[in-house]
Each structure stands twice: as C-alpha cells, then as structure tokens.
Write a sequence for this structure.
C-alpha cells in the first residue's frame, strides 16, 4: 500500500511514517509472538487461532499510540509499555473476532483474509476472542514479574484498560451498534463512536502516559486527545466503508450501509463528516502540545489522512 | 432444596451449612447487585442480561471459597476480599454463558431457567459473557479505589485470577472439552477437569489467601488444596449428570453422555469415581490443616456430598 503512510505536506520531504514506525511495529510483533509462544504448549489449536488473528499484518495503531504517548515523557519503563501495548492489541483483536461472528456483524473477511469463525468455526472463534481478552489482563497484571515497574503504576494502567474494554466502552459500543437503525441522529452516532472506538484508543494513549509516570493533569489531556482522535478515526472508517475498495479496506466494503447501520456520513453527509474528522484531529493535537513535532503528531494526523 | 447443605455426620448436631453461609451469600449478592447497578446507566439491555445470569440463585461456591479461605488468616482487607469474590463469580458466570452457546454445548437450560442466548439471543449472550469477564478485571484492578489495600497485593490477586481464566485454565478446559470423544483415557479426563474446573476453584481460594496476606508457602498449599477440591467437584458433577434429575441439577441431565463427552465415571466406573472424589477431598483438607473445624472445611466436604 505505497503512499498510505505519506506525510501531509508535499512541499517538505518527510520520512515516511511507515519507515518511522517500522522498528516499533517489529518490536510489537516480536513481543506478541513471544507471548503466544509461551501459551502454545497449553493448547495448540487455540494458540493457532489466537495467532491467526493477532499476527495478521495489522497496522498496530493502538500499540503505537501507547508507545509513542509513553515516549512523550520517556522514563525507565518502556519495555513495560511495550508489553502493555501488546495487551491493547489483544483487546482490539478480541473485539474484532467477536464482532465478526454470525450472530453479530456476520463478516466473512477481516484484513483481507477469512474471519476467525470462517477459518476455525464459531466455537473456536468465540474461545479465541475470550482468550485474547483474558490474555490482555494476564500480560498487564504481570508486568512487575518481567520489568522493574512499581505494582501501583501497573495496576492503574490495568484499570484504565479494563474500563475502556467494559460497559463504559467497547461492550456498550457494540451493543448500541447492533441495535442501531440508519435513522438515528447525530447524538446517537457520536455515542456509538465514542464507546466502540474512541475509548479504547484513548485508553491506549492513557496507558502509555501512566507507564511513563505522567501527572494526573497530563493524563486527563492525553485522554481527551485520544477521545478526539478516536472519534475522528471512526468517522474516517465510516467514510472508507462507503468509498473504499475491498483491497484497501481488508474487509467487506459497503457493509455498514447494506446492513442499515447508523454511520456518521449518513447523518451529516460526506463533506461535513470529513470536515468534522479534521476538526477532531486538530482538537486532539491541541490538547497535547507535548506531541508537537513528534512521531505521535504524525500518527494522529494519519488517522484522518488514511484509516488503518 | 432442603437437606442439600446437610453436615456429614448424622450423629452430631451441626448447624446447617446453608445457615452458616447465609450472611456471606447475602453480602456477595448485595455486592454483585451494587456492581451491576453502577453499570446499568451505560446500557440497560446489557445490564439486564448480565444481571439475569449473575443473580440467578447460584450457590456462590467460588466466592464463598475465596472469602472463607481469606478468613483462615483474617486481616483488615475482608471487604476487598468480598469484591474479589464477586470478580470470581463474574468469571464463572461468563464461562457458563459462553459454554451454553449453540456453537459450544448448545444448552437451553441453566440453573432451571432458559440459558442466556435462549432468553436474550446469541449476540447479547456473547456480549454479556464478554462484559462479565471484563467486569471481573474492572472490579479487581480497582480494589484500592474502594479499600485500603496495597496495590501490590491487589495486582497479585488479579494475576492469579487472570492465569486461571486464560489458556492455562478455563480456555484450554473448554477447548479440550469440545473436542473430547467418550473414548479418552484417564489422563485426558483429568486434564480436562483440571483446566475447566479445578484451576478457577483453586484461584478462588488462592485469591482469598493473597488478600489475607498469607505467606508464599501457605499460598502454595491453598492452591494444591483448591485443585484437589476442584477435581473432586467436577467428578461429582459428572456423576450428577448421570444420576441427577433436571430439578436437582438446574440444567439438562444426561447431556454429557448424550453428547459423547468424556466423563470421569465413563472412564473408571461410578463407584471408582465416587471413591476418587472422596480421596481428593481428603487430600484437599490434608493440604490445609488451617481449615480444620472451620466453615471452609464444611464447604470443602460439601463439594463431594452434593455438587452445587
């Protein structure tokens, strides 16, 4: 996908985001691989299904947001932040597997390949999703066993993740999404986007900040920044569902509209949706002046330039 | 169900276990109710489905094991142990909801009522299970927000729970159970029982010990005691599946045999299975001399006298 990570200014020669991210993406995937290898002895078939969805060439947006937000403050616990970034990806991947199930969105394709239940059957897909959600907590509650990080810091990060993955976030987002009709209003679509997408993205960034020892004031700004970026991301995702091809999306395009789902462009139109996404990313950056000129700024801008 | 909690010795007048447990069961259910009420504002339908399965008259074996193991050492954190006990029940309830799904064991009845997917549909049942698994971690990672408990202790308890609920426990247990044929050997049925039942029961007791500040040596004995008790519990469950009525079981009897599942009595016979369960409970008590004469001893004996 040449050009998908291109910088925003054609006048200035910027290093491509894909190249900037390469080392950290490789580190994230090596760590995900190591976590799965530790588990493979327990049940080979389950490990295979977990690996299939977890190591499938995703862009690793949430883990990168976690790591690069951490890097705004730095500190001695970057290896712990890398593990926590993997936990974020586990939660995200679990949510995709369960959302694709026949009783949910019934999607046959995910990132250009058969979805988990198409490949392994429904029982294994449900269990692999459960296993990945739980694995996130196995990873994040054991950080002090592998890294010199205070348990209190680790527990705070775990609590941030758990809140975003629960009924205050992902669960309610999917429940609302399932019952949405295409005739909802703006408040409703914003509530869905916030729960199903924005809160986990905000949590990814907040976990990074917590593991860098950022102050409570900074954490609050990180969370606001992440919520705006997450809202922008989901608006762009809705736009891509209308405009994108299957190859670019890696999933079936037009599904939202065909299933009568409530999307942002359906409520306000495509132009207004694009403008709103750009406005949200501007707000996201404004909340976080520490990010100016960093990789994180590039990544947050990328959210609207091209959905993952 | 008069008599189901009766003591083992007809010669000695013992207070019925049901009466001994009444106050703590009421406390557990009040706490579960409070946790759900805090969540109800997020999504009413999801809260209803979570409540339906969580507050359905279960015996609360795992929470009681957690609390009463805690009480062997006592200490200032019993309120935190009560919250953790609720987290254990959330994990147990999630596993029942997902195990009952059509793509898993396809069970229409649970504790004498329609199973979650029969009552609310599959999508809601999958999500309610996900929500309860996650809720367990929301509860256990936030103990220091509600109780004066050190974060390090809380994190250790969370890690014990996460390990038992993951591929080292529940997940592999259910994966093995789904693929089992009735012709497996003893090693296989013991492996299934250990993963699908014993490790969460052992975790319930170990979490109680951790939250009482028990030593590492004591924790290891608690875990061994819990594994043996859990193995005995599952053998009795297998026996009840053959011998029990639907009213006593609260679920469809004969399902294991009809589905060609590998059960303990199918491998060694009913008499040998009964003898093995009694032997395991004796071993469970031997590993934990602190429990002699306590409510916990009564509860551990109850595991073989009558499955929950």
């Amino acid at each position: 996908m040449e050009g998908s990570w291109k910088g925003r200014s054609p006048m200035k020669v910027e290093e491509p985001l894909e190249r900037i991210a390469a080392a950290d993406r490789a580190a994230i995937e090596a760590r995900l691989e190591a976590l799965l290898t530790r588990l493979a002895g327990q049940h080979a078939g389950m490990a295979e299904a977990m690996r299939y969805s977890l190591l499938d060439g995703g862009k690793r947006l949430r883990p990168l947001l976690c790591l690069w937000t951490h890097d705004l403050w730095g500190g001695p616990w970057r290896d712990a932040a890398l593990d926590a970034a993997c936990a974020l990806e586990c939660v995200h991947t679990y949510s995709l597997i369960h959302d694709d199930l026949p009783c949910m969105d019934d999607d046959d394709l995910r990132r250009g390949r058969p979805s988990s239940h198409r490949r392994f059957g429904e029982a294994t897909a449900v269990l692999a999703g459960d296993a990945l959600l739980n694995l996130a907590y196995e990873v994040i509650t054991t950080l002090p066993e592998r890294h010199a990080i205070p348990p209190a810091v680790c527990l705070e990060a775990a609590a941030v993740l758990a809140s975003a993955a629960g009924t205050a976030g992902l669960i309610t987002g999917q429940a609302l999404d399932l019952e949405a009709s295409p005739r909802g209003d703006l408040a409703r679509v914003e509530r869905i986007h916030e729960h199903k997408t924005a809160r986990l993205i905000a949590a990814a960034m907040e976990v990074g900040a917590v593991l860098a020892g950022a102050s409570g004031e900074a954490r609050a700004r990180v969370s606001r920044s992440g919520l705006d970026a997450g809202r922008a991301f989901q608006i762009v995702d809705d736009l891509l569902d209308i405009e994108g091809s299957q190859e670019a999306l890696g999933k079936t395009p037009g599904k939202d509209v065909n299933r009568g789902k409530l999307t942002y462009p359906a409520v306000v139109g495509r132009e207004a949706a694009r403008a709103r996404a750009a406005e949200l990313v501007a707000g996201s950056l404004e909340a976080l002046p520490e990010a100016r000129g960093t990789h994180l700024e590039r990544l947050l801008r990328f959210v609207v330039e091209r959905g993952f």
Notes: Residues 184 and 262 of chain B are 6 Å apart (CA to CA). The first strand of chain B starts at residue 109 and ends at 110.
